[in-house]
Amino acid sequence: MGEGAPTDYARAMNWFQKAAAQNVAEAQTGIGLLYRFGSGVPQDREQARTWFKKAVAQGYEKAKKELAEMNAEDRNPGFKHPERIPPTLQTVCFIKVPQILRFARLDKAEQETIGERYRACLRSTWKRASGGAPFPAD
Questions:
Q1: Distance from C-alpha of 30 to C-alpha of 16, rounded to nearest angstrom
Q2: Do 7 and 1 contact (CB within 8 A), yes or no?
Q3: 55 with 87, same domain?
Q4: How many CA atoms, within 13 angstroms, populate the side-chain half-sphere of residue 96?
Q5: Based on the domain organization, do 70 and 11 belong to the same domain?
Q6: 70 with 81, same domain?
Q7: Is the entire prediction scored with pTM above 0.85?
Q8: Do 62 and 29 touch, CB atoms closer than 8 A?
Q9: Domain that holds residue 62
Q10: Are 16 and 51 in contact (CB under 8 A)?
């Protein structure tokens, strides 16, 4: 898996699993990344979380960052850069659209409806508060 060589995700998973069995946080994070993005394995966000949490428990910062990004994605579905949404703006829209806090447990149709209401709330609140500046998460 050198530079310019094709990526062999199955081989990477095999090595990551061996190292993760020895509690190597970098390998646990690697497994989490494969599951998060569906690289060589079916995408499984819950498996990704499980592996990131194991690495976080050992103090591994990259896993902490990955877990925080996943949480931001879950709270702010449909944005290219959800980490850029100001927390106070999120709080306002959590109050206005409280169903967003249960987003992962909603069925697909509900997720679409609630996600759209939440995104509309964020954009309209941002527009009023910023005087029309570009929305930071796009």
A1: 6
A2: yes
A3: no
A4: 17
A5: yes
A6: no
A7: no
A8: yes
A9: 7-74
A10: no
Structure tokens at 54: 């194991």
Residues in the chain: 138
Distance of CA 137 to the CA centre of its chain: 14
Token reading at 88: 């106070």
| Residues 42-80: b if buried by 16+ CB within 10 A, e if exposed | eeebebbbebbebbbeeebebbeebbeebebeebbbebe
- Tell me if 23 is assigned to some domain: yes
Mapped to the 3 state alphabet, what secondary structure does 25-72 carry?
HHHHHHHHHHHHHCCCCCCCHHHHHHHHHHHHCCCCHHHHHHHHHHHH
Question: Over its length of 138 residues, how does the chain's per-residue pLDDT go in tens digits?
Answer: 456 667 899 999 999 999 999 999 999 999 999 999 999 999 999 999 999 999 999 999 999 999 988 887 777 767 777 777 888 888 899 999 999 888 878 888 998 899 899 989 998 998 988 888 888 877
**Residues 105, 121: Cα–Cα separation, whole Å:** 21
In angstroms, the Cα distances linking 23 to 30, 49, 59, 60 are: 12, 16, 12, 11
100 and 62 belong to one structural domain: no
